[in-house]
Design goal:
With 111 residues, this protein is mostly helical. Helix content is 60%, strand content 11%.
């Protein structure tokens, strides 16, 4: 993906980040099946190291799993989504990176 397209995508996500967070940060409370899936995931990975959520957005899933006791690292293509997550869950000690930058680095090694 070229830089122009990457910047356009980041701007689009940045425009809606606050509204998206407000709409979806508690979304899992209304989704018992999704919560069950994450419970099963949690049971399989607890005490096995850090978890990486790709496309973490404002952190609705990261927050849920972190509250259960998992160590979480997340990546998202939007700096503003990451900012929303940090504003909501400031005490998380997570490593965040730009998703598309990570993809570019991976592409260098795959060539």
């Amino acid at each position: 993906m070229d830089n122009k397209r990457q910047n356009e995508r980041n701007k689009a996500y940045s425009k809606i980040a606050q509204k998206y967070k407000n709409l979806f940060i508690n979304e899992l409370q209304k989704k018992p099946i999704d919560r069950k899936i994450y419970e099963l995931f949690f049971e399989r990975v607890v005490n096995k190291g850090e978890i990486l959520e790709i496309g973490c957005g404002p952190g609705e899933i990261s927050n849920y799993l972190w509250m259960k006791g998992l160590e979480i690292a997340g990546i998202d293509c939007s700096n503003e989504m990451i900012k929303q997550l940090r504003n909501t869950i400031g005490r998380l000690s997570l490593m965040w990176a730009m998703f598309l930058s990570l993809i570019m680095i991976m592409n260098l090694y795959m060539e």
